[in-house]
Write a structure and sequence with these properties.
The complex is a heterodimer of chains A (about 300) and B (about 425).
Chain A: H1 16-34, E1 47-52, H2 57-69, E2 73-78, H3 90-98, E3 104-109, H4 114-121, E4 125-131, H5 137-151, E5 158-162, H6 169-180, E6 184-188, E7 204-206, H7 209-212, E8 218-221, H8 237-244, H9 248-251, E9 259-261, H10 274-277, H11 284-305
Parallel strand pairs in A: 1-2, 1-3, 3-4, 5-6, 5-8, 6-7, 8-9
Helix pairs in contact in A: 1-5, 1-11, 2-11, 3-4, 5-6, 5-11
Chain B: E1 3-13, E2 18-27, E3 30-35, H1 36-41, E4 48-51, E5 56-59, E6 61-66, H2 79-88, E7 91-96, H3 107-120, E8 124-127, E9 129-130, H4 143-148, E10 154-155, H5 164-175, E11 180-183, E12 194-197, H6 200-205, E13 208-210, H7 213-229, E14 232-235, H8 241-252, E15 257-262, H9 263-267, H10 289-300, E16 306-308, H11 316-319, H12 336-345, H13 351-365, E17 381-391, E18 410-420, E19 423-427
Parallel strand pairs in B: 1-4, 1-5, 6-7, 7-8, 9-10, 10-11, 11-14, 12-13, 14-15, 15-16
Antiparallel strand pairs in B: 1-2, 2-3, 5-17, 17-18, 18-19
Helix pairs in contact in B: 5-7, 7-8
The chains are: A alpha/beta (about 300), B alpha/beta (about 425).
Chain lengths: ~300, ~425
């Protein structure tokens, strides 16, 4: 079994075996991360550049740690406030970096499709660390790994994705991945935060948390950006929390052992109550742990696929 | 006195409902005789005779919506380079849009375009006048003086007027000068942040969409105001069947309303965007296949009057960017006709009707001396082989900008020669 892709630009295009391949590899990485000696030499001599056009502490740290544990040389570049302001285009930045012969580029950009554009112009493997509202494949993979470790499977579970699906790359990647593995997906949100055609995207649509959460195995909360909750898409924070924020009462409609997930960073008291975020059903910290493992698995796999390791 | 005779060709001229085999006799840049009659007259003494067997002659094509970079962005396209591209595409008359830098909102600037065209290109160039100064959407330009100087129409180019009172007054005022008001309609607020047609495809790509209502609502507003004011109104680039219905209703009421459509919306659809191909980021956006087919039908049944190229040269600085930051628009002068012939080859439209919407009708609506091969008319003629296959390779693009939505496209039907005022200005090899 091998992994027939040069880049990881999205979950779209991955088959069920591709996904299982990555998840199985990530399991090995989880074990490694529990040892005292966490560093291997798998990617020794290879160069990984984290190119973040949009600020992100968590994802960037996770990719950095993953690369270092595999023995790669990791360089972080936050481009958000340098070249772009000087008018350099994305493609020019890509060409400049390409001339430095990296082996892996980890890219985050605020525009959907920007990572794919960059991948066309460089000679190395590109990993999408989030592009606009398009995809965030490693997040979906780490979510799946978390679910599989807690529930023993992903297929045939019912997963509710709640909140700002419209602007969420996490939601899109998760809808694709969960469908690929045979889970049932629900989305719960006010209509203003759902994309057109959501019914045809492989999700059942609910506008009430009570109905939507009924008997689900997993509750995935999404982050609501502050600028979107003051009249533009929903009238106010308090109204949003009242109808769509996850509190103990709403969670009680789900299965008793339902998992509570959140991709972070959380807005406590907006989309999720603190007692739930810190409660016994929350696996939010495990998600972070699985993040490093999944990213190690992805990088090792892509380097193996391109014959570089 | 020079005389040229084109013989053995099929002539399709919607202005006289002519579709026959014969000759065209050109004297002093004008049509002296045409058709079977001309063939029976015999060859005038001393004439240059050109055998055009297998070719079709039609009135030179008229493109009523061409964006050019001159003045202001000459590196994208000059009037000269657009003229060459047009000639290659069989287009002999173009109406240029006022969205340049500076905006064509003053007689002196209009005359600059006319002068530059006279000095640098062989095709007929008819500049349009801006409707509002600097396209600011508020103050009217001098319609009377602009029309007197030869403006082809009054338009704010890519911009949709936001203020209904301004467009009402513009329509009222323009009427007395016989000016055609040509508008694109896209509501700025409804389309805000939209990257492509609203729908499933946009949702998967992570984009907000442009709903069809963004086009229909300002169009309905404009048509109502045209009814109120009696203006001569042209909806320049409609893209959805609901817009055709608005136009159809206006025509049924005998309003002075007409409609155009970009060749892109007739021959491409939203799926062409694929994985973020910016050359397909257009305005209006490419719609669904179902909607495209409905627009072809509206063209065939007479609801839509004009096909335009919406030629919009953009360089790598505005196109080789992430999709949301890329400019809208594609070049189209060189491919409009061959792309339009796809509709003919698919049996969706007759050749007569196709030439009507590409030449006769736009000339009539914009009041141009073009669109007809009647005796006495200027000898602007497009000669083409409807069956010749060719591929539109990037290297062969004549336009200064290469942002073609038909890169590497395969076509059946090619322009072989373009004649303006009796002179061959383009010939295929």
């Amino acid at each position: 079994m091998s992994f027939p892709h040069r880049h990881l630009l999205g979950i779209k295009g991955l088959s069920e075996p591709d996904i299982f391949y990555l998840l199985d590899k990530a399991e090995e990485a989880v074990k490694l991360s529990l040892q005292r000696e966490k560093k291997t030499s798998t990617l020794r001599g290879l160069t990984q550049i984290n190119l973040f056009f949009e600020a992100s502490t968590r994802t960037q740290a996770s990719f950095e740690l993953a690369g270092k544990r595999l023995g790669a040389d990791v360089m972080n570049m936050s481009v958000g406030n340098s070249s772009v302001k000087k008018g350099e285009t994305l493609v020019d930045t890509a060409m400049t970096l390409n001339a430095m012969h990296p082996d892996m580029l980890v890219v985050r950009h605020s525009s959907a499709g920007a990572v794919a554009l960059l991948a066309q112009k460089v000679g190395c493997a590109v990993i999408n660390a989030g592009d606009g509202a398009h995809e965030h494949p490693t997040q979906a993979l780490l979510d799946a790994l978390t679910i599989r470790r807690m529930k023993g499977k992903v297929g045939r579970l019912t997963v509710a994705i709640c909140g700002d699906v419209l602007h969420s790359r996490v939601a899109r990647s998760n809808i694709l991945l969960l469908n690929a593995l045979g889970a049932r997906v629900r989305v719960i949100a006010p209509r203003t935060l759902l994309p057109t055609g959501i019914e045809q995207m492989g999700a059942e649509v609910y506008s009430s948390m009570k109905e939507g959460l009924k008997d689900v195995d997993v509750v995935m909360m999404l982050r609501l950006q502050r600028e979107r909750m003051e009249g533009a898409f929903v009238p106010s924070v308090r109204e949003y929390f009242r109808f769509f924020g996850l509190d103990a009462e709403k969670l009680s409609y789900a299965k008793d052992d339902a998992l509570v997930m959140h991709p972070g960073p959380m807005n406590r008291g907006v989309e999720i109550a603190s007692e739930i975020a810190d409660g016994p059903q929350s696996v939010i910290e495990q998600q972070v742990e699985m993040g490093v493992a999944v990213r190690m698995a992805v990088m090792e796999t892509l380097m193996l696929a391109s014959g570089r390791n | 006195m020079t005389t040229r005779v084109l013989e053995n060709l099929r002539i399709v001229d919607p202005s006289q409902q002519m579709d026959e085999t014969g000759s065209i006799i050109i004297e002093n840049g004008k049509i002296a005789a045409i058709g079977q009659n001309a063939a029976n007259q015999g060859t005038p003494e001393g004439a240059e005779v050109i055998n055009c067997k297998g070719q079709i002659a039609v009135p030179g094509l008229v493109d009523t919506r061409v964006f050019i970079g001159e003045p202001g962005s000459e590196y994208r396209e000059t009037i000269a380079s657009a003229g060459k591209a047009a000639a290659k595409g069989g287009i002999t008359s173009i109406v240029t849009m006022p969205d340049t830098n500076p905006v064509i909102d003053d007689v002196a600037l209009l005359q600059f375009i006319q002068r530059t065209a006279r000095d640098t290109t062989d095709i007929h160039v008819h500049p349009a006048s801006a409707m509002t100064k600097g396209l600011n959407g508020n103050e009217m330009t001098e319609f009377g003086l602009m029309m007197e100087a030869g403006a082809a129409c009054i338009t704010d180019g890519r911009k949709t007027l936001r203020n209904a009172a301004v467009i009402r007054r513009a329509m009222t005022y323009a009427r007395d000068f016989g000016a055609l008001i040509a508008c694109e309609t896209q509501d700025e607020d409804l389309a805000a942040g939209g990257m492509m047609n609203e729908g499933l495809l946009a949702s998967w790509l992570g984009f907000s969409g442009i709903p069809k209502e963004a086009e229909i609502i300002p169009l309905e507003r404009d048509v109502r105001l045209a009814e109120l004011t009696g203006a001569n109104y042209h909806a320049a680039k409609i893209s959805v069947p609901q817009s055709s219905k608005v136009i159809r209703r206006a025509k049924d009421k005998n309003l002075n309303v007409s409609a155009g459509i970009s060749i892109n919306n007739l021959t491409l659809n939203e799926v062409d965007i694929g994985e973020y191909r910016t050359f397909f980021k257009l305005s209006p956006p490419l719609r669904s296949e179902e909607e495209r087919l409905a627009m072809v039908q509206a063209l065939a049944d007479g609801t839509i009057d004009v096909i335009c190229s919406s030629h919009d040269p953009q360089d790598v600085d505005t196109k080789r960017l992430p999709f949301p930051h890329a400019a809208e628009g594609a070049i189209g002068l060189e491919t409009m006709f061959s792309a339009a012939l796809r509709l003919y080859h698919a049996d969706q439209i007759s050749l007569m009707r196709l030439i009507e919407v590409l030449s006769t009708k736009p000339a009539e609506l914009y009041g141009l001396d073009a669109g007809s091969l009647r005796v006495g008319a200027s000898a602007d003629i497009t000669l083409f082989d409807p069956e010749m296959p060719w591929v539109h390779y990037k290297d062969e693009i004549v336009s200064k900008s290469k942002n073609s939505a038909f890169e590497d496209a395969r076509f059946t039907g090619k322009v072989l020669a373009t004649i303006v005022n009796g002179q061959t200005i383009y010939s295929d090899e």
